[in-house]
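Q: Could you fold this chain for me?
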Amino acid sequence: MNKLVKQILRFGVVGGLAFIIDYIVLYVLTDIFHIYYLISSCISFTVSVIFNYILSIKWVFDVNKKQDMHEFIVFIILSVIGLIINSIIMYIMVDIISIHYMISKLLATLIVMVYNFITRKIFIEGR
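A: Sure. Below is the predicted structure, expressed as structure tokens.
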């Protein structure tokens, strides 16, 4: 199997698991603990990013072990940008277009997932 195809499949598995974590935490914080959906979304996104980082570095991308701190900083910066993109999309869809926050999360996640793969491939793996 082509290395890029294998990498995309692994990225999809890791992303799928991270999405499940993100989605469940978002639901629990918003519907059970009654936290404002954008705050819940930021928290759930952060939890899923930590999970995603660990698995991405260990299983998806070819990472030079000597550059762990540099890569972690780049990963954090890219993740913060992803969080901003996610929050803007959610705000527009929920507060302006009036789409339920859980449905809005699906579209926001798809867009951020594409952004994540491209930017991590470029800036973390360096290819």
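A (continued): The chain has a mean pLDDT of 87.
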